[in-house]
Design the sequence.
């Protein structure tokens, strides 16, 4: 409110001038009074003789000269306040007051008694020009004008500094918000403002460069952490999970959306990992262990490392948990150990049967045509089992080779499922099992027709093998935005929860007797798992013992 400030300042200036004028007038009045008192004493000395006022022509001449010299008019009154004589044309012949000293217009009037020996001999009235200060009005005008000029100069000065200061304040706020597009002018006359602008520009450039450097480092660190190849958990000093990297989410097949800022006791589902973190919090020492953890439908091996982050006072500020997936190495080790034993075990039964029945026939059983026919049927069955096992081993070996490749094309899951259901309809009917393909979408995905057919045959054959008579096997296709699900559900014997991570291992059987009787080799689901991974897909299993199992295979509509 500029006009209010101006009105206040002008009022103050006029008040100062008014007070100064009053002081000057009082000073002049006092000076005039002193001068009149001195003149009155002089007149008293001239006109008072022998206790009374004397009027002679000689005294009148003396008073006239004195009045002319002092530029005053002198009137003398007797003891009765009657005019005796006057040096000027005094009109008042008597006095109405005996003591008076004040201004009257442009004149100063002074009345006082003439005394001698302490007695009043008469009265004198002195009238003269009041004292004035020449040019006093000009001084007052100068004071007001000076005040106005100072106020204007002050406003100009403040304005010249306030604008760059306000600009600097806005620029600083923008810098704090991460905006560096404001530039202070370097074409200013005031040295202090120029220095401020130059400093702000330098600070903007430095902060911009620091921010860019920090962003580059942060991006590099984020990229490194996200793609380091190991799963990472960052836990703060109070046990909250601050960060979960991409590799961890992929290894453990979880989005971990609810993990951020959650307590690790509630979020981490593995008791062994929680115990390791607790121990590191307690001992403040790095801890490394190899753990086998169930991840969805598998059991994976991890080299887990927990390292504390300590401050200068050796207080735990946080913990870094690193999960190095060594499942491939462990599986390879186990495969090398178990392969010969498993293959030998699987080959032992059909080979033993073939040898045994052959020896029996050679010992004379061939003479009994009925027994010969029965033995030959058994030998044929065992031979086919042996052939199926060898074929599955060769197929699995082929899939695991480095140069194995998928023949990518757009295929219809529904069309493939129709042909597979038609092919296995007779096998299901032999057990009075209802095999059906539900109505649904076409399910066009990117994949290899022959390999997808192989996946369906293995899964549906398993479902028929593990479903009792009068059961149901249902095949359905469900489309989503970017993916399509192939769902195979049965009402079979089901799978125990702790067995689900192992069903994709080679030669692992849920019901070994049933599997061998049905001609299973124990390699079907291992082949399915490898083929699904080759298609960049995922396989999920839900099962309830005694009620059945549901296998869901997720295919991409477009491969990477």
Sequence:
């Amino acid at each position: 409110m500029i006009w209010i400030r101006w009105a206040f300042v002008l009022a103050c200036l006029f008040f100062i001038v008014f007070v100064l004028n009053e002081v000057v007038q009082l000073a002049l009045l006092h000076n005039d009074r002193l001068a009149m008192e001195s003149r009155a004493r002089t007149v008293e000395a001239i006109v008072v003789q022998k206790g009374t006022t004397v009027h002679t022509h000689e005294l009148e001449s003396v008073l006239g000269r004195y009045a002319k010299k002092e530029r005053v008019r002198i009137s003398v009154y007797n003891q009765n306040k009657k005019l005796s004589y006057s040096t000027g044309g005094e009109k008042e012949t008597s006095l109405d007051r005996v003591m008076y000293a004040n201004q009257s217009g442009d004149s100063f009037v002074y009345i006082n008694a003439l005394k001698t020996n302490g007695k009043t001999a008469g009265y004198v009235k002195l009238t003269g020009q009041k004292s004035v200060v020449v040019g006093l009005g000009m001084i007052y005008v100068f004071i007001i004008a000076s005040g106005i000029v100072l106020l204007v100069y002050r406003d100009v000065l403040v304005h010249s500094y306030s604008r760059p200061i306000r600009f600097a304040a806005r620029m600083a706020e923008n810098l704090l918000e991460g905006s560096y597009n404001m530039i202070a002018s370097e074409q200013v006359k005031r040295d202090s403002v120029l220095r401020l602008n130059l400093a702000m520009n330098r600070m903007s450039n430095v902060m911009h460069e620091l921010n860019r450097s920090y962003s580059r480092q942060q991006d590099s660190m984020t990229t490194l952490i996200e793609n380091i190849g190991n799963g990472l958990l960052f836990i703060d000093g109070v046990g909250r999970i601050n960060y979960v990297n991409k590799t961890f989410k992929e290894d453990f097949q979880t989005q971990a959306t609810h993990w951020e800022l959650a307590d690790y006791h509630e979020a981490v589902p593995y008791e062994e990992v929680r115990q390791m973190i607790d121990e590191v919090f307690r001992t403040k020492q790095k801890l490394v262990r190899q753990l086998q953890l169930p991840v969805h439908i598998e059991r994976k091996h991890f080299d887990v490392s927990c390292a504390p982050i300590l401050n200068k006072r050796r207080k735990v500020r946080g913990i870094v948990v690193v999960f190095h997936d060594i499942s491939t190495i462990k599986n390879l080790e186990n495969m090398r150990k178990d392969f010969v034993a498993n293959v030998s075990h699987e080959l032992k039964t059909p080979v033993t049967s073939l040898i045994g029945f052959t020896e029996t026939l050679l010992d004379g059983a061939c003479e009994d045509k009925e027994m010969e026919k029965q033995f030959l049927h058994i030998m044929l069955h065992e031979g086919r089992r042996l052939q199926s096992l060898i074929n599955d081993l060769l197929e699995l070996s082929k899939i695991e080779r480095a140069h194995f490749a998928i023949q990518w094309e757009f295929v219809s899951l529904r069309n493939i499922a129709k042909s597979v259901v038609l092919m296995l309809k007779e096998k299901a009917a032999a057990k009075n099992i209802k095999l059906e393909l539900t109505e649904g979408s076409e399910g066009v995905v990117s994949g290899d027709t022959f390999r997808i057919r192989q996946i369906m045959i293995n899964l549906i054959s398993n479902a028929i093998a593990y479903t009792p008579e009068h059961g149901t096997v249902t095949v359905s296709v469900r489309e989503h935005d970017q993916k399509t699900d192939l769902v195979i559900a049965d009402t079979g014997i089901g799978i125990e929860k702790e067995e689900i991570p192992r069903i994709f291992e080679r030669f692992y059987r849920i019901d070994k007797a049933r599997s061998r009787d049905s001609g299973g080799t124990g390699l079907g689901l291992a082949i399915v798992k490898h083929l699904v991974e080759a298609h960049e897909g995922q396989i999920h299993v839900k099962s309830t013992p005694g009620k059945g199992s549901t296998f869901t295979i997720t295919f991409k509509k477009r491969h990477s």
Q: What stands out?
A: Residues 231 and 251 are 7 Å apart (CA to CA).
